[in-house]
Automatic annotation (TrEMBL), chains A, B:
It catalyses: N-acetyl-L-glutamate + ATP = N-acetyl-L-glutamyl 5-phosphate + ADP. Its main location: cytoplasm. Its EC number is 2.7.2.8. It is an enzyme of class 2 (transferase). InterPro entries: AceGlu_kinase-like_sf, AcgluKinase_fam, ArgB, Asp/Glu/Uridylate_kinase. This is Acetylglutamate kinase. The keyword ATP-binding applies. It comes from the Bacteria. HAMAP family: ArgB (MF_00082). One of its GO terms (molecular function) is acetylglutamate kinase activity. Pathway: Amino-acid biosynthesis; L-arginine biosynthesis; N(2)-acetyl-L-ornithine from L-glutamate: step 2/4. Catalyzes the ATP-dependent phosphorylation of N-acetyl-L-glutamate. The record marks 9, 224 as: Transition state stabilizer.
Amino acid sequence: MKQKLSVVKIGGNLIEDPEGFEHVLDLFSKMDGNKILVHGGGNKTTEMSQKMGIEPKMINGRRITDADTLDIAIMIYGGLVSKKIVAQLQALGTDAIGMSGADANAIRAHKRPVIKVDFGLVGDVDSVNAYGIFKLLQAGFTPIFCALTHDGKGQLLNTNADTIAAEIAISMSDQFDTTLYYCFEKKGVLQDVEDENSVIHHIDSKGYDELLAYGIISDGMLPKMHNCFHALKNNVSRVCVGNSSMLEAGNPEYTTLTL
Amino acid sequence: MKQKLSVVKIGGNLIEDPEGFEHVLDLFSKMDGNKILVHGGGNKTTEMSQKMGIEPKMINGRRITDADTLDIAIMIYGGLVSKKIVAQLQALGTDAIGMSGADANAIRAHKRPVIKVDFGLVGDVDSVNAYGIFKLLQAGFTPIFCALTHDGKGQLLNTNADTIAAEIAISMSDQFDTTLYYCFEKKGVLQDVEDENSVIHHIDSKGYDELLAYGIISDGMLPKMHNCFHALKNNVSRVCVGNSSMLEAGNPEYTTLTL
């Protein structure tokens, strides 16, 4: 039987709220078995850009990662947020190591090709080094990933944290019975967007198609759900979507997705 | 027979010069056997503080690490410099992992006690987790340390990079035949400070006492030499002091220190 692995992605908004953040790290540290954390950087990058007088570059409403913006992402995601999470987790007894996709050659990517828009230093994932990550887990470490990848030629690249979490979970699923947790501000996928208590507890492929057909899934949830089913179709055992209390043993209020 | 380990400390000034920096990483990547890199952050922290409008706090000419200054050190040392070194080393075929003393619980420290001056969030090293670092080396990784430690209670602390290199080398010497390399801008310990070609090739304890007695060792070198002999007295096999070409096989122009 495969060993269990939990891949937990925590959203940027959680990082903004110090109390909520401590709580989620506490819950994460109490989870049994092999685990990996993936985090975004919150609004600190925007704040830092403003302090440094760097104007965010936008094309058609999409943010462009130029060299200065990437440096800020490396400082904030790869430095400040990562190291503070690690120090906090060590205090909670979890032997964490903060990593980018360059560390341990964990996540290779290529610069997104220019079709209509040049997004700049943004990476689309090519491969995850499952053996490298496995060696760290086997040695008793808990990898903490920020949303940075590298191209293997010395260039770091900005990459979406949801994507990184899904790709890590997929690559580890040969070796592990993997659960992917997406922590965000809502309790789960809601039947009624206005009603926080209308959590749908279980969605499978058939249910997903029905929800899509009836337009139940809101626009904001669509890419997240796409990531979830992409992971499930690539051997991830289950995906859980909800707020941080979903990491608490015995709490049933979140959405579990399976094929 | 013990396996060999090289602990290489590169100074901040090397990081300022992109060409020199690439060269030293290239030489480091070509070194055989187990190896660990320790780096400072150069003048980028001062530059960044100025950009962000944070005045450096000084008491009696000594820099004080307040919370804002520590955040900048974490961003620059722990983020920007660390991750760029790692990406570069990966491109050169070295399987690097960028770490602070919090990662893998590698270096515990306590806040320096206030005697006359409160240096702020500065850490004096208590212990190095040699087993944690050993596990990383054994798994084939090359740890890259920045000059940050933690107190085990969630607080990161600023710590001198020379001290970190010495303490890591000392702690690894039970297990390894360890050489500690201090790379800086000069070719080695000089007989005549004005003459770059007056490198003293070998200094032992007796020679060191003589150099001190004759006032040959300049003020700037004194703390570095103290670190060297502290390491040697604590089972580090040898300490080498010189510029980056000392890492090149076959180059004899540097100073080797032994007991």
